[in-house]
Amino acid sequence: MDFCVLPSGTYRLINLKTPACLLGQEGDLAQIDLAISDGRIVAAVPPDAPVVDMAGKMVFPAFVDMHTHLDKGHIWPRAANPDGTFEGALATVGADRVANWSAEDVRARMEFALRCAWAHGTRAVRTHLDSLAPQDAISFPVFAELREEWAGRIALQGSCLVPIDMVEEGGPFDRTAAIVARSGGVLGAVTYPVPDLRRRLRVFFDHAARRGLQADFHVDETGDASVATLKVIAEVALEMGFDAPVTVGHCCSLAVQPEAEAARTLDLVAKAGLNVVSLPMCNMYLQDRTPGRTPRWRGVTLVHEMAARGINVSFASDNTRDPFYAYGDLDMIEVMREATRISHLDHSGTDWPRAFTANPARACGFDAPSLAPGAPADLVICRARSWTELFARPQADRIVLRAGRQIDRTLPDYSELDGLMT
């Protein structure tokens, strides 16, 4: 149950706290009062409007989750990872996709996941959609329907997901790219070492440029230091003058490469203006997993070094209850809590809260979350009054406001999916 019931319509919330960086200020937490009317934050409300003293509780603009896999979500009960490895996840998802991913199956699981994100306080989501034929022609129409149905609640973007060695001119990738373009999506691929990687990336960027599409790559999701496709992506984007937004996710191998080599790559990433999204929960789950051996590293990329270079860094949920990550619930407060612990965001810069709000919105082109007058009153309010209180508990009793109204935060019951798990 939420810790209090707020008015609706026109009212004031006083004595809140929020990260100072979200107000364009220096420092840690800043005090803020919010006036709300007609679903928006306003400069002032009439003197007789209801006033609620929030006693120092923390407020955030609703979150942006820029890297998810709604089409894979919640298949774990029927498709568990046999050994917790990346290879086990690939094989298990591939088999489940062929056997089960009808339009009805994908729609039900995606809808379930969006209801979870809504209840937790997320306002925008980018999802990757497995796009090996014939799945592209199944999942993208379902996604387009859901995007329309959820308009005004959660803004949605869809990115295709194909292996880089599928990217060719005149091959199946033409068909997939056309489907993505018709749906107003994002062109995406998984990169890994192939002999002609540079040529394939040029073909990929050419497809995106001709169709006016953003690009989003899964990159170097491995602990093998010799895997360094991120460097090639940055080089090719610079060589071609590709000027649409480019996002690179994971980038795990950077963390195990020699310092000088990683630094040279990061300089190229900064020069190319690439956006980076780190997926700490999934990567810690999969990376460096060996039977009978304790993992030696956290699996995450060099976010501090990226931020120091001015690279736009974000964090996101990634997979949810599927073979790539057995847990999760599209809860960005959980992502923030775990990213802080795993990546040591504490005792660091004070602008990391932007990596869960403004940074991903900027990377994807979503409307920027804001607490300024004129912004939608889409808010997440937690009982916590400080970072240690926020991260010590899951904030299950948070309040979520959308357009100034407190929403019902009841989560869908897993039993709703039982019929799909046979």
From TrEMBL:
It comes from Paenirhodobacter ferrireducens. Its EC number is 3.5.4.1. It holds the Pfam family Amidohydro_3. One of its GO terms (molecular function) is isoguanine deaminase activity. This is Cytosine deaminase. The keyword Metal-binding applies. Transmembrane segments: none annotated. The keyword Metal-binding applies. Keywords: Hydrolase, Metal-binding. Residues 51-96, 200-405 form the Amidohydrolase domain. GO terms for biological process: cytosine catabolic process.
